[in-house]
Amino acid sequence: MNNPGSRRREQIRSAVNAYQSRLISFAARITGDTDSARDVVQETFLRLCNRDVDAIGDHLAAWLFRICRNHALDIRKKEAPLRPLEEVPTPPEASVDPHRALARRVLAAVAELPATQQEVLRLRFQNDLSYKEISEITSQSVSNVGFLIHVAIKRLRETLQETGGAQPRCSAGGRSDA
């Protein structure tokens, strides 16, 4: 029979395997630095080690992303004034591949959106989180999350039409009630 300590270790190991790479990508977008993102994710999992995983239950993804987000925002605030201007990444040159060129236009259009809209889009489409999970992470209501995603997609379509790019084929649907 498994003892509680080995069950807990397995729960944490399972969470690390399932979420580590997604959390690093998420935190890197916030901090602007992969090394800082790894530190943020390590701290996130350390906090999980100090919690009752069973009490978090079905909200594990939302809990992890919320802790990661909050810590990444704290790191960004602390380190932003210290980062020299030379470290700001420059966009790569446009590629002749039309798919890459479109992807760059879409990413540029996303970068022009307000931070809250960028965040909910990334949580929804890059991390495949439900509206409810995004709501728990961002402290926005579920209906406001849906509104932000709707407005962001509408603005992306308008921007891409103005610049002559194809419209993105994405749907805000999916697991909105999960």
Write structural notes for this entry:
- The protein is an all-alpha fold.
- It has 2 domains: 4-82, Rna Polymerase Sigma Factor, Chain: A (Orthogonal Bundle); 94-162, Up-down Bundle (Butyryl-CoA Dehydrogenase, subunit A, domain 3).
- Helix content is 69%, strand content 0%.
- The chain contains 8 helices and no strands.
- The longest helix is centred in the first third of the chain and has 28 residues, at 4-31.
- The chain is elongated and about 60 Å long.
- The mean pLDDT is 83.
Short description:
This protein has 178 residues and is mainly α. It contains eight helices and no strands.
Give the helices and strands, then pairings:
Blueprint: H1 4-31, H2 34-49, H3 53-56, H4 60-79, H5 98-111, H6 115-126, H7 131-138, H8 142-162
Helix pairs in contact: 1-2, 1-4, 2-4, 4-7, 5-8, 6-8, 7-8
